[in-house]
């Protein structure tokens, strides 16, 4: 490489040339922005984030859409500051950008684009009657959190707004529309609105017809497909950044409009991208406020399973998804408690330091957590048939309460409902060569990864980019669109998303793999037996302890 070539490949040069791709992801607790070199998307140039939290309002878990606007603007401003600090300049021109967000939920708009009811997130579990009715009607598992379940529940409940619905979308689709004016979704996110066809190219036409016939005579106005966003695969151009969209992201006016956008995706899809798990027989686990496992199928399942959603990769391949509403929130609350104790004792710790200390202590615990059980349900958990959240730590008098056992129980508790849901895949004979994990829980090297391998009884890999998560994943999808938009593929250029990830993004990835330790695997299996039996305690707690709808 010549000196001129070297200078041309610097981050500052990439920013000056507009050779950068931006990804924004709206997660449960943080809105994150990530900037990559569009020609070398494994290279993260800048990041920014903004913390937010859902609210329980009138029994509904929701976010105010005004906070969406404020949050994406704040995350982008933090990214621009990071770019200026690190490279001497903030982005002005983008090669491409993309938006990702929490999947599913319910955003319904009228003909004037006015929101009809507050955003109902994936966390709401009030759609049981609709989900059961639709699962029977469509012959496919329709989870409580899917958009179609929320819509049909509103129909069943006779909600006044139903007759005025003209557009339905997800959170990612909403933000994408604000940036481009286009009503589209990536196929992965679309598959959480309504089942997609076997080709992964559109909503299933036969099932749409069944739904329309079933809903005939209700207040719902018109065929369902007219209300749904258009479906696009990874690599497609899903509109361009408008002047209003650029001003929404960057009120300073420095960011220029005109950049192409990739199809908006859900956090499940970007998790697959961030872990290079989009090819058949690959899989990943994403751990955050919720936790879910995704396995790309090489054949259809033999029958529907209530624990498994059949969704799609951003390229349209079928995926078996086990989604648990509760992930690391309760563990984070306990870590915060211990941080406060350390502060009172005169020892201030950062969150990362506290996690490192406490997770390391978990490895000193008994393999079965010494008889201590931890339930992390702060919200309802359909996989475990829990209608509401009641976090609990419970043990028998014979158990041994130590910090090590308690912390191991908390980490096991994060993975326990997921392990229950994965049984259906094992019964189907679905195999996966390796699970890739990502999320902040895996920033402490080796601990959560090792215990997840025990819970799944399968090797678990964690890449160096694991903690960047979905914001990086959607930035990579944006870079893929930028390359596809550049013209006809040249010889040797990747033509599929799987090839692109393998050759352009993960070719030199530093991935650590943990094989399941037999003692840990046996210990988790013993823990899970007790955990499953103790779910009866959770159900009693739901009945006995007052709490808002979950």
Automatic annotation (TrEMBL):
Q: Which InterPro entries match?
A: ATPase_NBD, FGGY_C, FGGY_Carb_Kinase, FGGY_N
| Residue ranges occupied by any Carbohydrate kinase FGGY N-terminal domain in the UniProt entry | 21-248
The organism is Microcella alkalica
Q: Which family does it belong to?
A: Belongs to the FGGY kinase family.
Domain Carbohydrate kinase FGGY C-terminal per the UniProt entry, residue ranges: 284-481
The record's keywords, sorted A to Z, are:
Carbohydrate metabolism, Kinase, Transferase, Xylose metabolism
Q: Which GO terms describe its molecular function?
A: kinase activity
Taxonomically, which superkingdom? Bacteria
- Which Pfam family, just one, is annotated for this protein? FGGY_N
- Name assigned to this protein: Sugar (Pentulose or hexulose) kinase
């Amino acid at each position: 490489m010549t000196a001129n070539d070297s200078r041309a490949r610097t981050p500052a040069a990439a920013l000056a040339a507009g050779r950068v791709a931006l990804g924004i992801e709206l997660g449960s607790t943080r809105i994150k922005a990530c900037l990559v070199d569009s020609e070398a998307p494994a290279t993260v140039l800048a990041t920014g984030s903004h913390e937010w939290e859902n609210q329980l309002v009138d029994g509904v878990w929701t976010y105010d859409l005004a906070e969406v606007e404020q949050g994406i603007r704040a995350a982008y401003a933090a990214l621009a500051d990071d770019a200026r600090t690190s490279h001497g300049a903030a982005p002005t021109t983008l090669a491409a950008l993309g938006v990702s967000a929490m999947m599913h939920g319910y955003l319904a708009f009228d003909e004037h684009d006015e929101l009809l009811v507050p955003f109902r997130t994936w966390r709401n579990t009030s759609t049981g009657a609709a989900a059961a009715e639709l699962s029977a009607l469509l012959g496919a598992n329709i989870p409580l959190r899917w958009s179609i379940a929320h819509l049909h529940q509103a129909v069943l409940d006779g909600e006044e707004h139903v007759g005025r619905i003209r557009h339905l979308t997800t959170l990612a689709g909403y933000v994408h529309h604000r940036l481009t004016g286009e009503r589209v979704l990536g196929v992965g996110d679309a598959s959480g609105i309504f089942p997609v066809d076997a080709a992964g190219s559109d909503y299933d036409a036969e099932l749409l017809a069944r739904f329309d016939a079933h809903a005939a005579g209700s207040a719902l106005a018109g065929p369902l497909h007219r209300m749904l966003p258009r479906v696009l695969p990874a690599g497609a151009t899903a509109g361009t950044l408008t002047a209003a969209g650029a001003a929404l992201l960057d009120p300073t006016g420095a960011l220029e409009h005109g950049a192409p956008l990739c199809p908006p995706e859900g956090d499940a899809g970007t998790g697959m991208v961030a872990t290079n798990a989009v090819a058949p027989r690959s899989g990943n686990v994403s751990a955050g406020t919720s936790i879910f496992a995704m396995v790309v199928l090489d054949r259809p399942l033999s029958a529907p399973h209530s624990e498994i959603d059949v969704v799609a990769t951003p390229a349209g391949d079928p995926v078996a998804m086990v989604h648990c509403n509760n992930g690391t929130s309760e563990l984070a609350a306990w870590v915060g408690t211990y941080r406060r104790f350390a502060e009172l004792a005169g020892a201030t710790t950062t969150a990362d330091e506290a996690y490192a200390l406490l997770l390391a202590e978990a490895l000193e615990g008994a393999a079965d957590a010494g008889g201590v059980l931890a339930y992390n349900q702060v919200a309802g958990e359909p996989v475990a048939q829990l209608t509401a959240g009641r976090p609990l730590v419970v043990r028998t008098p014979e158990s041994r309460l130590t910090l090590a056992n308690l912390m191991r129980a908390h980490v096991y508790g994060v993975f326990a409902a997921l392990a229950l849901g994965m049984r259906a895949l094992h019964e189907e004979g679905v195999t996966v060569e390796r699970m890739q994990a990502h999320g902040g829980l895996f920033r402490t090297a080796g601990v959560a990864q090792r215990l997840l391998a025990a819970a799944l009884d399968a090797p678990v890999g964690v890449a160096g980019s694991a903690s960047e998560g979905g914001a990086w994943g959607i930035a990579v999808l944006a870079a893929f669109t930028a390359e596809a938009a550049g013209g006809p593929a040249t010889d040797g250029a990747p033509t599929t998303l799987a090839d692109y990830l393998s050759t352009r993004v993960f070719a030199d990835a530093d991935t650590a793999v943990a094989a399941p330790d037999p003692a840990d695997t046996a210990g988790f299996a013993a823990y899970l037996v007790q955990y499953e039996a103790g779910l009866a305690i959770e159900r009693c707690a739901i009945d006995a302890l007052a709490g808002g709808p979950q």
